[in-house]
Amino acid sequence: MSAKPAAKWPVILLAFVMVTAQLWANPRAEYSAGREALEDRDYYRAVERFAAALETNPDYLEALVGMTEAYYRLEEYDEALEYSGRAQRLARRDPAVLALAGQVHLALGSIQEAHELFDAAVAADPNSVEGRIGLAELAIAQGNTARALERYRDVVRLNPHERQALLSLALVYEARGELETAEEYVQLALEHHRRHPAVQMLAAEYYYRRRDYDSAIRHAQSTLSLRSAHQEALLLLGAVSLHRERWAEAIAYMEQLLGLRRRYPAAWYVKAIAHRGLGEIDTALSAFEAALEVEPEAETVRYALEQLVLQALDLEDKRRAEYAAYHFRQAERLENQNYFRRALASYRRGLRLDPYNREARIGYADMHRAHGHRATYLQQLEVLTELGFEDEFITDRIEASRALLRDEVAARWSIAQFDLERDRVQVSLFTIPHRNEPLYPASDLDLAQTLRDELLAYERVAVSGSPRIVDDYAEAFRAAREDGSQYFAIVQFVEEDRRVSVRAELYLSRTGSELGQVHSQREGNVRVRAALARVAEGIGARVPLLGRLVERDFGRGVVSLGRLDGLEQDDELIIVRRSAVIPRSGEGGYLYDGGDKVGSFLVTAVDDLIAEGEIRREDFVDTINVGDTVVYKGDLAEASETVRMFPPLYRRIRSIQ
Predict the structure, then answer these.
(1) CATH match for 425-542 among 2.30.110.10, 3.40.50.12280, 3.40.50.200, 3.40.50.10610
(2) pLDDT digits (tens, 9 = 90+) for 489-514
(3) If you write DSSP's letter for every residue of 138-207 in order, what string do you get?
(4) Superfamily for 547-638?
């Protein structure tokens, strides 16, 4: 009897060993996949794979280093800082880890900390290439190119073939105007690393900047021979073709590039310019529209499209009227569905194309009046008189409208508040088909579109383009970054005969970190709309307020936030230098550099979309300007590190991989 338990020990031990091996094999596989993605410059996939490795083993040093590198390449330095700190705790004297931490601190503007870490790396290993390169980049960040050259030459003396040092020397000498020496280092890098795509690409970019297009083409094509899907090389070849007015050639390159990355605004833009050069107006307009579909806020693309319409199409051209009619129809449909703000935007777009359309402009004005926006109604009637429409219908309504406007904020400041460009926070929406269980086949995208429509009710939110189907988190992360959105949500739908469940995972686009989930389960006849409305409400509640100072008169001013944003009298806002805040991980809200806070704003009167208040400067010297950013006091947190502006050369060198 006593022998039986003992006989089980080999089986138990074997099972233990197998389970343990499996636990440790998975992190290694995930790490290898992450490292491979990092080498392929697929940083989104790298983040996903390294995170998977760390989920099983939080102290996996190599994965922590990989995660630091991935976030560093994505220029998300606060996230990189966290992972580099964890790596340092595990390997305090590893020169490579120390140097990487120094790179992160340097990118954040922490000069002293970066210097100490680079020095520590060199102290741990006097031949540390990473530490010495870090010291060279530190000198560049401080504008001391002479010191940087000295540091890089030290590296080359230690290792004459060191690729990053050779390329950096070429860029530094180019920045100093010493072009012959710069080209010597370009050629030296090519001599030792001709089979490396980054070297060929840097050479292509170097010669492109020098307008030596033959050499630029040769090296870009060499880049493609080493990595056939190299997007930057194809884009550069397209740009060279534009410079040479080889329109068909540019189109061919962009078709190839769009075959690799369909949602690439720059490629669509180059393609549109080439079609314009060929005089193919319709095709050029279609290409511009494709770029705007990918990135609706691309002002350069939108300007080019509108200019092409204005320049190439006469006012009598029916195509102009068709463009406008589409927007007017869209406005009417949106108004009928109570999507008021979007309807206004459609009217505005249509009137740009067809500015003399009397009925459309009256319809636009009537929308404002119907919703109690009397000042904007008056403004649009006055525009009609400026266009020559001074009939009795219009003049009577102008006179009546002026009598109704007294002490509103918009009237006192003469601001057409609904014509102001709103500072909405951009959210990208995605759904992953294999996660969904829709009641109707392939209906998940339609459900996502309905959620988008629900989100349009929230003044602070704008959805980037249309919802998209993606294969996984990494693809959504990448697409959200390409959109330029601040947040993205992955939405899941499970629908049965009498019950629906909608779940949205909300992420920060710049880091991919999860901010939380919103879940709604509903039954009944209106269950789908109710569930979607609840999820939209949850997403809207998690998006922090963002506006700007639009007018100022000494100690008083007007901001682009109002009653519809939840603003109330006596609320306090913080004023930060223009575009100097970024969405914050974890708690939500915004992050800013302490030196960028310039004042505060106490709300004294609130209108629908604007508010008046008292301006209080932060320092003795008044540095507050119209256009500066305003946020709720509770939505702002000072960054732990001071972010500095570095010379362009620093960013170019930092991009070398």
Answers:
(1) 3.40.50.10610
(2) 999 988 766 678 889 999 989 888 88
(3) HHHHTT-HHHHHHHHHHHHHH-TT-HHHHHHHHHHHHHTT-HHHHHHHHHHHHHHHTT-HHHHHHHHHHH
(4) FlgT, C-terminal domain (2.40.10.410)
